[in-house]
Amino acid sequence: MPQKRKIPAEEKVRIVEEYLNGKIGYADVKEIMGIHSKTLQSWISRYRAEGPDGFLPTERNRIYPAELK
C-alpha cells in the first residue's frame, strides 16, 4: 500500500480556490492530486467555514461556535 503524501496548506488553499473559481474541475483535482473525493469535499467545506486560515496547523483542538455544531 503506497504512503500518503503530505500536501502543504498553501497547496490545499490554491487547489480549493481554483476549483471554486471554475479554473479546474472536480475530476481534474482528483486526478492531478491523487486524492479521494471525500478529501476534496472536506477541504471545500473547511475553506467555506474558516477560509484559508482553516488549513494552518493549530497548537490545540479547534473550538467551534454552538451554531456551527
List the helices and strands and how they pair.
Blueprint (H helix, E strand, L loop, with lengths): L8 H12 L5 H8 L3 H14 L19
Helix pairs in contact: 1-3
How do you describe this structure in short?
Helices cover 49% and strands 0% of the residues.
Task: Describe the protein in words.
With about 70 residues, the chain is mainly α. Helices cover about 50% and strands about 0% of the residues. The protein is built from three helices and no strands. It has helices at about 10-20, 25-35, 35-50. The longest helix has 14 residues, at about 35-50. The radius of gyration is 13 Å and the shape is globular. The mean pLDDT is about 85.
Question: Which characteristics define this entry?
Answer:
69 residues; mainly alpha
Rg calculated over all Cα atoms: 13 Å
Low-pLDDT stretches are none
The termini sit apart by 35 Å
How many E-type strands? 0
